[in-house]
Every structure is written in C-alpha cells, then in structure tokens.
Amino acid sequence: VLTCLFAVRVRCLRAMAAVEGFMTPALEALRTGVAPVVAAFEPYNQYEHLDVAYVVEGVALMYLAWAAATLVCSVTPVFKNAPMYAAYCFVGMVPICMLTYEGLMSFHEPTPETVEGRTYDFYDASARICMIQIIYQVFGIGVAFIAQGTLLSTIMIVHHVCTLTLGFINLNPFVHYHIIFFGGVIELSNIPLSVMDIFKSFPELQDIAPALNNICRYLFAIFFLVLRVALWLTYGLRFHLDCIELLRTGTAHSNATVVINQVLNLILTAMQLLWASKVVKSLLKALGLTSSKKKSV
Predict the structure, then answer these.
(1) Distance CA 142, CA 267 (A)
(2) How far apart are alpha carbons 106 and 289 in whole angstroms?
(3) 45-67: string of b/e by CB count within 10 Å (b at 16+)?
(4) Which residues lie closer than 8 Å to 21 by C-beta, 6 or more apart?
C-alpha cells in the first residue's frame, strides 16, 4: 500500500510540474496577447479600484478555457450532444467558487454602525467580487449568444446585464459592505445548482451517480431558500433603507448611482422570488407533498 501511495505521489508531482511548465508560458503569452486591449481601455478607466489588466485577462482566460472544455466535451460521449453548454457549466464553476470564497471569508466582518460606513467604507474583498462578477457576466453574455439554447433566455440576459452594471458602478467604492453578501455569499447556492444543471441536461449521469444528483438538488433548494429568499430580503431591506437615507439627507455621491442600485436590486429580487416559487414547487413534489394533476382526455 505504501509503495502504491508513493507511486501515486510521484506521478501527481510530475503531473503538477508538467502543468506548471505549460501554464507559466501560456499565461505569459496570454498577457502579451491582451496587452494592446488593456492599453486601449486603460485611458478610459475612471474607477480607482478597477484593475483593467485583471479583468481583460480574466475574460480572455475564461473564453479560452471554455473553448478547450468544449473540445473535450465534444468527444466525450455523455456531453457530445451539448458540448458548449457542458463546458459553460464546468468553466463557470471557477468564478462561482471564487466569489463564494471571497464572500464567506469576509462575511464575519462587523457591521458598520453608520449609514456612511455601510455605503462608503472600502472592502478589498468587495472590489475583487465586483471585478470577478464583471468577468463572469461578460463571459456569460458572450457564451449565451454563441451557444444560445437555454443560456439565451431573456431572464438570464437581464440577470447578466444587471449584475455586470452593478459590478462596474460600485467600484467607486459604493455599498461594499452589502456587496459581500449580494455579490459573494449568495453564490454558494450556485455550486450545487451548476452540478444539478449538468445532471438535468445529461440524464445519463443521473443513472451513474443518482445519490450525488439528489444531494445537489436538496442542497440547492436549502441554500436558495435560505440565502436568496430569507437572507436576501433581510439584507435587501437594510440596503434600501441605507440608500433612502442617503437620498433623504443629500449625502449620496451620486443620486443616479444610488437609484440605479435600488432599481437593479429590485429587479434581481423579483427574479429570486420567481425562481423561489419554482424551487418550492419542485421541492414539495420531490417530497411527495403535492401530486401532479392528470389532464382528462
């Protein structure tokens, strides 16, 4: 057993060395390739905390990873019928996990006692969340128009545009305290959702790993209802009260930015409630608490 474990360790180390040997020059080539794009956008960057190079390189890396994953999925029997969608689910897990990590690692931060603190204090994690969301949403919009299908639904495009807009306008900084939850912590529910979407789109996998499929379905339902309904409405109330106070006292840096934040948050809230109704119906059906009515012929 020890000999086998040692052999596995040696192979893993060799594989890691090979990947590192490939990735280092690949990343350098990527940076060189996107340098003209970064140079073109930089003069128009009016956001102190926007790292243009980070965002452009991130978007380029996402598309390259998606293209590579699509090729792999196209020759994989299970995923060959919809390789672009499968690749989107797999690659999208990276920013989702990054956002979840940033949110959870900063969620313990004490709540500022003043409205000014909750709306204008700067958080490093929130700035990173904004930029990762920009990368993720630009990637999502592009893939939606390329792959189309369910990714190109109106509600998903609206969701992408709303989140992308909030990522940009809140880098000033603005509402960074609230971004920890709305841009980071809530992404935890998207981890089981991504796995669940893969099982749903590729039914063969449900026969291979039925237990994992069921676990992800129930985890998603729990995370969604707790994070995107109960806590979303709770934190949303505080967010809107803070914004209203800024407008009432005339202390907002930009009334337009505050109002846009409120409007987009309300749109996203409506989406959460719409999806929540579907989640509850599916959960009740899975638990056998409701029965589907048969139509009479």
Answers:
(1) 22
(2) 38
(3) eebebbbbeebbbbbbbbbebbe
(4) none
Measured distance CA(146)–CA(128) in Å, rounded: 27
Residue 20 has pLDDT above 60, yes or no: no
Q: What angle do CA 171, 228, 197 make, to 5 degrees?
A: 100
Confirm if 161 and 97 have CB atoms less than 8 A apart. Answer: no
The reported pLDDT for the residue numbered 49 is: 82
Mean pLDDT of 17-24: 58
The conformation of residue 111, written as its DSSP 8-state character, comes to: P
This prediction has a pTM of: 0.86
Query: What six digits make up the tokens of 84?
Result: 């672009």
Mean pLDDT of the chain: 88
Q: What is the pLDDT of residues 212-270, one digit of tens each?
A: 999 999 999 999 999 999 999 999 999 999 999 999 999 999 999 999 999 999 999 99
- Which residue blocks in the chain are alpha helix, DSSP H? 2-41, 52-74, 83-106, 115-120, 124-147, 154-169, 176-179, 190-201, 204-208, 210-225, 232-249, 255-286
Number of Cβ within 10 Å of residue 202's Cβ equals 20
Q: Please give the Cα distance from 95 to 61 (Å, whole number).
A: 11
